[in-house]
Queue: 3 jobs
Job 1
Amino acid sequence: MKTLYISQQGSYVSLRQEFLQVKLKDRLIAEVQLPLLEQVLIFGQAQITTQAIRACLWRNIPIVYLSRMGFCYGRTLSLEQGYRHLFRYQQELSFNDRLWVARSIVQAKLKNSRVLLQRQNRRSSSPRLTKVIQSLDYFSDQAMQSTRIEQLMGYEGTGASLYFSVFDELLLNSEFVFLGRSRRPPGNPVNALLSFGYQLLWNHILALIELQGLDPYQACLHQGSDRHAALASDLIEEFRAPIIDSLVLYLINRSMIKIDADFDYRNSGCFLNTSGRSKFLKAFIQRMEESFLFNNEEPRPRWDTLLQQVKRYKTFVYSPTEGYQPYLIR
């Protein structure tokens, strides 16, 4: 089953017999057969005809409407499908089940961060990088032995702090300086890029969580509240380094983002301006639309990797004994 991502601005989706066609002006850019379609995600200023909506509703294919930044405005579901609430199953998860998943998520985050550092260390060996890589190995092992969530969060926080203490060694553009992670507000252009990317990815994962009928406020690692969809914060962890951090390095090291043209400084912080957001979004969508082999299966866009992880978590909720396999890079 396929997911149709409509991310090109100004494009529109129409119905032709058993096919959904995506066009930009009069040019056909994609076509998907309805029986093979699982869901439709529409980003930003893209349109879908009433006939196409009706055809999706008839086949129980949900349509999700998102901003260009990935914020979910809402979704269209058929009456027959309704809303699939899994919160009862999520609430019934035992502490040990939650702890096991929380351990797996933290370990995956630390391992993926380590891989990013290892790649740079192979290109240009550094004592600082080598030491942090070894430390991430240690805290990754310790995470799997944690018996309390608080202890696990401590290992995650320490590992993240170590990782960002050498992040500057991955930057090849001397105009960009990074002395450490700062969030609210971002203190410099590198932090502005990281924060924007994380928020973009978090919103998209939240949309997928809701689309699968999961309760986004019931999580394993982070504490949920009325204002915090903690499950999105859980599932983003394993994707931070391989998707956002690597993209930020790509944009900076290839001088695709300009320090004097793509940022605004206000309210004691640094933020991407209109030009910077446009460049980041274009690069983000291009990267997420690239196809690659996932678990030695057929090539899929990176968007689909996020969906498959949410589905894995959903499978865990139904069958905790099967566990949860996090996303790991090599």
Note: Residues 2-76 form a domain with the Ribosomal Protein L15; Chain: K; domain 2 fold (CATH 3.100.10.20).
Job 2
Amino acid sequence: MRRREFITALGGASAWSLAARAQQRTLPVIGILSVRARDESAHLTKAFYQGLAENGYSEGRTVTIEYR
């Protein structure tokens, strides 16, 4: 009987971890492609961030931004 209890507990623990992982929210990703260095286009990036903020988005909390 102890073996069944162990297997049941082990199955419950693995199901719990799967349920916790399923609830993690992924952030949308915005990709920025540019031939310029970030320093050269800082004024454009600043305006882009302002537009995001005006619409309720912020990097790291509601969207992820990747530069290439």
Note: The mean pLDDT is 79.
Job 3
Amino acid sequence: MPDAPRPPDRPVLGVSAAVWQDGKVLLVRRGRPPLRGLWSLPGGHVEAGETLAEAVRREILEETGITAEITGQIDIAEIIGKDAAARTDSHYVLIVFSGRVLAGTVTAGDDAAEAGFFAPGELVGLDMTRDTARILSRPARP
């Protein structure tokens, strides 16, 4: 019988951003675990030697084809995954930024299955991650 997967030694640092254009927010549908199939703010891991701002701009571009200006930090989110025995099997800490579009056409890439802009009324009933729903429930940040 194979050994159970080893729990993470420490949280993984990541970034994401609420990028706005014309009153709509940029979202991606996750193509890989964790949270596969759910809509979320674009983002991902911070690479060694990257600043947080560099990482979030890179992740937005890789996942959506959009070049964004980062306008500030707006939140911190934690994603803690549990296995069937309720043991921690993943732990991510995300620094969440706001931003606006500078250039590009939305195209899903990297680990995003889909990407697009959504008006506030289109978010109702959208299957989003818990933190994305929480962050977007606040007043819009153009």
Note: The two ends are 53 Å apart (CA to CA).
